[in-house]
Amino acid sequence: MKTIFTALSPNLQKDDLKLSQHLIFRPKKWIHGKAEKELEELLSQAFNVKKVSLYESGRTALFTALKALDIKEGDEVILQAYTCVAVPEPILWLGATPIYVDIDNQSLNMDIEKLERKISSRTKAIIVQHTFGNPADMEKIMNIARLKNIPVIEDCAHSIGAKYEGKALGTFGDMAFFSFGRDKVVSSVFGGALISNNENLIAKIERGNRRYRYPSRIWVKRQLLHPTISAMVKKTYNSLGLGKLILKLSRKFHLTSDAVQKTERSGGKPKFIGHKMPNALASLAAHQLRKLAHFNHHREKIAQIYQDKLDPRIPRQLRKNGSICLRYLIRVDKPAKLAKIAKKEKVILGDWYQQVIAPEGVDYEKIAFAPSQFPVASQVASQSINLPTDINTNEKDAHRIVKIVNKFHDSL
Fold first, then answer.
1. Is 221 exposed, middle or buried (0-12, 13-18, 19+ CB in 10 A)?
2. Domain boundaries in the chain?
3. Could you say which of 99, 194, 207, 270 would form a disulfide bridge with 61 (CB–CB 3.0 to 4.6 Å)?
4. What topology is assigned to 26-209 in CATH?
């Protein structure tokens, strides 16, 4: 019986693995090549935008967006609680203050009424997250933002291909950024993009881009090794702990990069920030972007099995039309216990976001966050566990997961 993974490069297929291995042995293609332009054109066509900029991470994309808005010390930027520390970090790097907003209990996106209460004369931007690919209420948010003359940045890290009222997410705000991290909709292990149609902002983005250089070849090589190591870990995960050992050693000897660096847990800036996206990673991202419709159709099919077959008493994220369901979020008492039981059945469930600001170990004081002020997000985080919807989770796997979850729920 195979092990089902929710994380650990879930999008990785044989063709992606073959491409990454091909690139490892062609260092001349690591930094420069045709893939950057190809990825820019794919994104420009998908979102019908004038400007696409590529970076080594979604964090640098967001950092660049905030700089284009001239965010500085004393300014406030609104974002939701129940997110990753990667979102408030760029705000802090500019000396500004992140202003968190509690979430809606069903959509797990920003609570619109609470958003309005957090706006002040110092509010210089609103970052709108589409949690797990579920569209935020962009009509209401944009109406509020336009009335107050506040720029909107869409956080589409979870939502490439998702739509709101038939229109692509990422095309409502003044700018939108994407992440191509290892567990995202489209993956190049590390990578990000920023898009805009605003001529004034485009000029500022381009000025900011001129300061960036490409990351080191060593850093690029680590990212290219990640798919191969992930494949080895998955294949040997239950072979007397060999897979776990491979994963541990790859981190110890820096053969791969952690998704979130230690310094980031206290709001610090990791060394890789402030770079362009190298050609090799653009090649991986472009390759997966061409499979986007297939990926997202599959996610919807698996999500529908969960929707139909899970015990209806189990609370779950209320999904709107247009959602792509990057992961299927359910809420249970004692999620750690469910994860332990599932692991014995060779199912590794996901832990996004079991901390109000993920990952575990974030210093909330350093990122200006007080969990007690966000009761809904705190409650949801304490119950969160997510089910895989990726291309490597088939219908049989989904029914197997349903059986485990329903049995656990009945035992409570």
1. middle
2. 26-209, 291-411
3. 194
4. Aspartate Aminotransferase; domain 2 (3.40.640)
